[in-house]
Write a structure and sequence with these properties.
This is Glutathione S-transferase N-terminal domain-containing protein. InterPro entries: Glutathione-S-Trfase_C-like (IPR010987), Glutathione-S-Trfase_C_sf (IPR036282), Glutathione_S-Trfase (IPR040079), Glutathione_S-Trfase_N (IPR004045), GST_C (IPR004046), Thioredoxin-like_sf (IPR036249). By secondary structure, the protein is an alpha+beta fold. The chain folds into two domains: 90 residues, Glutaredoxin; 104 residues, Glutathione S-transferase Yfyf (Class Pi), Chain A, domain 2. The protein contains eight helices and four strands. A four-stranded mixed sheet has the order 2-1-3-4, with helices on one face. The protein binds glutathione. Glutathione binds next to helix 1, helix 3 and helix 4.
């Protein structure tokens, strides 16, 4: 049994997709980030980061923050969506690291300046839009002739997809990115993705 501390953001949905794909028992503890739930004392006792997602694995008494670590933990403990050995394992970890360290932070800052900060300086908006668009271009090239980012569907796809899904809110035009457009459609049609977003909306 797991508990997922969750808000309906890109980082939150990554873990919901994985839990749905694994078809394991879990409950969602919803946090309202706008109200500051992430700073509440009971949450601070679980994590020093004041951020979702956070996973509790009750069977192991494990409390784990950071979406990349959570995806890797679930993949390894269930032997799914991450090869145990070999070059494909490191291809998946490479793209997971790219999402965590590049796409997430750049798109996250871009979202903030574009959607949440009415006073944002045009330099900040322009810089993060360019950074985010360049990362979409990287992905467009990497998806050439591939259904998924590392051949087989993996935790790297689960990490990347929620950030692409919000391309309109990020003001990134994907009309000229056919590989990303097809990838988005392919992933949006998957059962666990559909159920993850449905459960996220109800949480
Ligand atoms: N590196 C973290 C980033 C997590 C993160 O930024 N979470 C956001 C929501 S997507 C959050 O909780 N923000 C609350 C805040 O910054 O106050 C991860 O990948 O899990």
């Amino acid at each position: 049994m797991y508990t997922l501390y969750f808000a309906p953001t890109a980082n939150g949905h990554k873990i919901l997709i994985m839990l749905e794909a694994l078809d394991v028992a879990y409950r969602i503890q919803r946090l309202d980030l706008a109200l500051g739930d992430q700073h509440r004392a009971d949450f601070a006792r679980l994590t020093p980061h004041a951020k979702i997602p956070l996973l509790v694995d009750h069977a192991q008494a494990l409390v784990l923050p950071e979406s990349g670590a959570i995806l890797q933990y679930l993949a390894e403990t269930h032997s799914r969506f991450l090869p145990a050995v070999g070059t494909q394992r490191y291809a998946v970890l490479h793209w997971l690291a790219w999402q965590i360290s590049s796409l997430g932070p750049m798109a996250g800052q871009h979202y903030h300046f574009l959607q949440l900060d009415a006073q944002a300086h045009h330099y900040a908006r322009d810089r993060y839009l360019k950074q985010t668009a360049a990362l979409f271009d990287t992905l467009e090239n990497a998806l050439q002739d591939q259904d998924f980012i590392c051949h087989d569907y993996s935790i790297a796809d689960m990490a990347i997809y929620p950030w692409l899904r919000i391309h309109a809110q990020l003001n990134v035009d994907i009309d000229d990115l056919p590989n990303i457009t097809a990838y988005l459609q392919r992933l949006a049609a998957r059962e666990e993705v559909i159920s993850a977003y449905a459960k996220g909306a109800q949480a």
